[in-house]
Amino acid sequence: MSAEQSGLLDGALAPAQNPKLFGHEAAEAFLAQSYRSGKIHHAILIEGPEGIGKATLAFRFAHHVLTHSDPATAPEHIADPDPVSSVGRQIASGASHNLLHLTRPVDEKTGKVKQAITVDEVRRAGHFFAQTSGTGNWRIVIIDPADDLNRNAANAILKALEEPPKRALFLVLSHAPGKLLPTIRSRCLPLKLSPLDGTAMGKALRNLGLEPVGDDPDGILQLSKGSVAQALKLVNYGGADIIAAFRAVLSAEGADARREMHRLADALSARDTDVIFNFFKDHLGEYLIDRARQAAAAGDLFGADHFARLSVSIGERMAVSTAYNLDRKQTLLEVLGEVAR
């Protein structure tokens, strides 16, 4: 099953089934100690860049809570989940009656993951709490990520956060918390995770069967910026080749530049390339913002404004192209032409 169908990158482990977490020891200790104190906040906003372990941390903590339902007797540290325990098996298979994972659903017509978490998905939380209200156990909802909630879904989850049931715990994940409704953020306790350092990245990649080379000749560790998801896109989806092709566009001129643009646009508009297309969109946005920052640092305010506006306009154009299923190659050629100029 492809990433477009499952939402899981090739080579990745599903967070519910991943027994290891690297680089977030302080966050784990905070959660364990907060829970053991009996004063855990009912909603934790776990924030940080995509692919650094937020969901894995959430599932590990859920396993910890459901394994040790009495906070007073819970261990001081979160251990690796036991995959053969009843709690471990139920969480890994998605069969736990005390854990609900809200994420973008699969469109039954297209077989692809939808672009947003819908209000129908959030309504599942209401049924979940109603069905488990008499068990006395903890009930945990993981929202993965809250950035994907559409407007109606966000308003619906806000009501649940405002009036949480007893022994309910919300683990709200976000790649960009600034984009969430302020009212959702205000009802959550923020827990910020940082990108993985080189040591943690090396361990995480080896855990997935990828052996990072010592001197990193392809620049994977550098380009991934502490994100395992980015590393997988670079290695398993040709992301490193896409970046090289984009650099070739920027360095070429005239007919050579047009030829490089067509080559890159063909690669990004081929069938089943949503993952790498979105990867390029993010890379292009980061490139333009970096150019804006460089111009501002050099005192070129006109240049900084130009690149900032270009980043916004190109981002909007590519979003419209995706939403209305416009010709992807034509959109890319227009965008690449603007950037190259």
Structure description:
This protein has helices at residues 3-6, 25-36, 54-67, 86-93, 119-132, 151-162, 182-186, 198-207, 220-224, 228-236, 239-251, 254-268, 274-297, 301-323, 328-340, and strands at 43-47, 99-102, 139-143, 168-174, 189-192. It is of the alpha/beta class and 341 residues long. Helix 6 links the parallel strand 3 and strand 4 (168-174). The protein folds into two domains: 3-194, P-loop containing nucleotide triphosphate hydrolases (Rossmann fold, 3-Layer(aba) Sandwich); 237-340.
Give me some keywords for this one:
341 residues, alpha/beta, 2 domains, 15 helices, 5 strands, 53% helix
- How would you spell out the order of helices and strands? HHEHHEHEHEHEHHHHHHHH
| Count of spatially separate domains | 2
Mean pLDDT: 92
Q: What fold name goes in the CATH topology slot of the largest domain?
A: Rossmann fold
Number of helices: 15
* Main β sheet profile: 5 strands, parallel
Produce the secondary structure layout.
Blueprint: H1 3-6, H2 25-36, E1 43-47, H3 54-67, H4 86-93, E2 99-102, H5 119-132, E3 139-143, H6 151-162, E4 168-174, H7 182-186, E5 189-192, H8 198-207, H9 220-224, H10 228-236, H11 239-251, H12 254-268, H13 274-297, H14 301-323, H15 328-340
Parallel strand pairs: 1-4, 1-5, 2-3, 3-4
Helix pairs in contact: 2-3, 5-6, 11-12, 12-15, 13-14, 14-15
